[in-house]
Amino acid sequence: MRNLALVLTLLVLGLGGCKSTEAGLDTAPGQDAWKVDVGVDALKADGEGRDGQDASDLLLRDSQGGDAADAGLLDLAAPETSTEVKDLPVDPGACAAAQFSKVTFGGRPVGEEAFHVFRIENCGTVPLKIYQIKLQEGSSPDFSMDYPGPGAAPTPENPLVIAVGESAGMDVVFLPAQEAIVGEDGSLVLETGTLVVVTNSPAGPLEVPVSGVGVVCETWSCCPAAVIDCDQGSKVPLGTTLHLHGENSYATSGLIARWKWLVDQPDGSQGTFMPNDAHPTPQFEVNVPGTYVFRLTVWDEQDSMSCIEDTIKVVVLPER
After folding, report:
1. For 249-285, what is each residue's pLDDT tens digit?
2. In terms of CB atoms within 10 Å, which of 4, 106, 231, 248 comes out highest?
3. 276 CB-near residues (< 8 Å, 6+ apart)
4. Cα angle vertex 64, ends 59, 65, to 5°?
5. Pairing relation of β-strands 229-230 and 256-264?
């Protein structure tokens, strides 16, 4: 079990990245809420984020200055049931966006917890207020959220507040109960779910799909996870050059050593990956309207191939 299951991460990045889902948020002064502590003493000399990714994390602190890690750990063993939140105020200047369009665990050892940071960015002009973070009813019970102690989960009375220009990162947990079955097409059947962030946005809740599979490791290295991101999002105008990212793929131990990109493109399109289809961050020009499906497979330093390929769809709109 991780000692700290919820962190807030201040990211220095633009808000023009891949944001396929957006929702708005607001803030309420005077609430006794968990907040981002931007003081120098909040920095922890970690140097390494979840799953080996570099990050400079800020501890989550309460309004009295206490560290969230000191509050103990609350494990939610199953997704929360559907809780309808009604009559929340709407602020047209509030906005939240998921940094990435999905949370992908790939293949993870059966019976072992895996953690993945889900980040929410403030894309509005006012502070964000998060009323509730939950897994949608019907999600696999293998997924859960961790919070730093009883009562730490955001609620309408005690929201999580994120200042303008900042972002929050929190751990989604995947604990596969059994080995994945093989479907009729020969691929592993995914455990799936939907992470729902309830806010005061006119756009409604932020919804992000979550997926993973349970595997049995025959060696010390389990299969790595392929992860695709796209700077331009899921709908783009004709002639756009897409900036694709596979560098967030990760291995259970060691590093990713190889990438392999494939694309299913509309009839008449002859786009190619630049500089090549083995680059971790290639570009791809879309010159024909229609749906493009990008697929990525990765290999780790032990030459173990990802159990499942990651995919992303990009719709290219015709010229008006």
Report:
1. 988 778 999 999 999 999 999 999 999 999 999 999 9
2. 106
3. 282
4. 30
5. unpaired
* Rg value, the chain, Cα: 20
Residue 157 corresponds to which amino acid?
A: E
What order do you get walking across the sheet with 310-317 strand by strand?
Answer: 235-237, 310-317, 290-300, 256-264
Residue 63 DSSP code: T
Do 167 and 7 form a contact (C-beta atoms < 8 A)?
A: no
Rounded Cα gap, residues 214 and 106, in angstroms: 8
Listed by start position, the domains of the chain span 6-215, 229-317
Query: Token pair 């990045």 is at which residue?
Result: 13
Measured between alpha carbons, how far is 92 from 181 in angstroms, rounded to an integer?
45
Question: Coil, helix or strand for 40?
Answer: helix
As a whole number of angstroms, the distance between CA 10 and CA 55 comes to 9
Render pLDDT for 43-56 as a digit per residue (tens, 0 to 9).
Answer: 333 333 334 333 33
Instruction: Say how many CA atoms lie within 13 Å of 268 toward its Cβ.
Output: 5
Q: Give the closest residue to 51 by CA, choosing from 113, 8, 111.
A: 113
Fold match flag (6-215 vs 229-317): yes
β pairing state of 191-199 and 22-23: unpaired
Q: What DSSP designation does 134 have?
A: E
Q: Which pLDDT belongs to residue 221?
A: 56
Which has more pLDDT, 229 or 33?
229
Q: Which CATH number fits domain 229-317: 2.60.40.10, 3.30.1330.100, 3.40.50.150, 3.40.50.2000?
A: 2.60.40.10
pLDDT in tens, 129-185: 999 999 999 999 999 998 766 777 899 998 998 888 899 888 899 999 999 888 888
> Which pTM value belongs to this model?
0.62
Give the CATH fold of the 6-215 domain. Answer: Immunoglobulin-like (2.60.40)
